[in-house]
Structures are given as structure tokens and as C-alpha cells.
Amino acid sequence: CAISDVQAACQDAIVTQELLKEGFHRDLLVKVELSAVGEDAGGCAVAARTHLPPGIYVDPYELASLQQHNLTKVVLIPDVIDVEAPEYLATNLLILLYMEPDPRCSRCFRAALPVHGRYHRPAEESEEALVVLKSPEVLVCCCENRLSAECWKPAEVEAPCSGQNVGPCQWYSVTHKLAYEESILQVPVGLRQHSSLVCVVTLLTTVLCSSMILAAVCKYGHFS
């Protein structure tokens, strides 16, 4: 009976992850409800740690602008990202997304982050590539409250609490229940059988535009 009660208590932490919008440019929305810390989660810093597969990336320049205006707090590992690389030349990205308290719920936290799909190789049949995003790990640092010892374990995360530039604090990984096991990003891709047509159209467009530029230079240019 004691084991069953502990498992029930630990499973009260619920995580929901959604990919909003359509196409290559999305918003990653993460919501967490921490029932395991009691009725009030005040004094707790909450973060979501997740691995982005090569098919998804975060634009560091866009992120810097958002953080400058205090619209989001994120740690990227690595912090240098090639935003032009296609999916087959990219690597995984680890993000630590700091979450804000939800004013409508004392035990709820949420955060949103813009993410972008990378270009994929042309496919044989399907016009979409599927990028699977696993559910994040929930990290908690509570200064005033304590989680049940059966529900958390120390996490190997060297990061400050709440995204502030202070020394790292002790984060704990919380056992939680997933609303969805994973999210799927559908990225449009080209078809291999269209390669010849694309090459011909690209070549003709390049020749036409180059000819128009050359004609304009010859007509209106001033040569000494």
C-alpha cells in the first residue's frame, strides 16, 4: 500500500508539450503542473530540459532578442548553432527552458520558445518528413519547499536558477506523467523525381535574371 501511495503521488506532476503553428516556423509550448510539491509551488524554480533532434533548431539571434526583452530564458548547449545547415549535416541540441509561474494556477508553470525546422533531403514518395520531439525532463529547484524523496533525484545540470547570472544551484529531476509521449513536426520536403525539373527551372531563371541585369547595365551604366 505504501508503494502504491508513493507512485500515485509522484505521478501527479503532469507535463504537456505542444508544437504550435504550421510549416517550418513553430512555437514550442511546454506546461507543467507540479502537484508533488504540495498546494503551493512558491519558491520553486522550474525548467524543462529537452533534446532537439537535428531536424529542429533554435535561432540564437532570435533568442538573444527575446531574452533582451525578458520574453524567454533559455540555455543552449552548444551555444553556437549553424542555422543554415540542413538536417543531415546538423547535430542534436540540448536546451534548458526556464518556466514562468502561471498566474491562474499556484502549482502550474509554462514557457514558449520559437523553433524552426531544417531542410531535409528530397524523399522518394512522401512530401513530408517527420521529426519526433521527445517529451522534456522536468527539473525543479525549491528554496522553501521540498519534494518527496521518492519523486525526485539529483540532476547533473550546471545552470543557475531562474536564468540569472549567479552560481549554479542544485536541480532535481522530477518523476512525472506525460500528457503525450512525443510531439511530431511535419516538415515539407521535395520529391526526388522532380530533381531534373527543379534544376532546369533554376538554370533558366538564373540565365534570364542574369541577362536582364546585364541588359540594364549596358543600357543605363556609365563606363569610363
UniProtKB/TrEMBL annotation:
Subcellular localization, as worded in the UniProt entry: Endoplasmic reticulum membrane
UniProt-listed GO biological process terms: GPI anchor biosynthetic process
Keyword set includes Transmembrane: yes
Pathway terms, separated by semicolons: Glycolipid biosynthesis; glycosylphosphatidylinositol-anchor biosynthesis
Signal peptide: none
Membrane-traversing stretches: 195-218
Keywords, in A-Z order: Endoplasmic reticulum, Glycoprotein, GPI-anchor biosynthesis, Membrane, Transmembrane, Transmembrane helix
Entry membrane topology: Single-pass membrane protein
Entry annotated with the keyword DNA-binding: no
Cellular compartments per GO CC: endoplasmic reticulum membrane
Function summary: Stabilizing subunit of the glycosylphosphatidylinositol-mannosyltransferase I complex which catalyzes the transfer of the first mannose, via an alpha-1,4 bond from a dolichol-phosphate-mannose (Dol-P-Man) to the glucosaminyl acyl phosphatidylinositol (GlcN-(acyl)PI) intermediate to generate alpha-D-Man-(1->4)-alpha-D-GlcN-(1->6)-(1-radyl,2-acyl-sn-glycero-3-phospho)-2-acyl-inositol and participates in the sixth step of the glycosylphosphatidylinositol-anchor biosynthesis. Probably acts by stabilizing the mannosyltransferase PIGM.
PANTHER family: PHOSPHATIDYLINOSITOL-GLYCAN BIOSYNTHESIS CLASS X PROTEIN
Family, per entry: Belongs to the PIGX family.
Protein name according to UniProt: Phosphatidylinositol-glycan biosynthesis class X protein
Organism field: Glareola pratincola
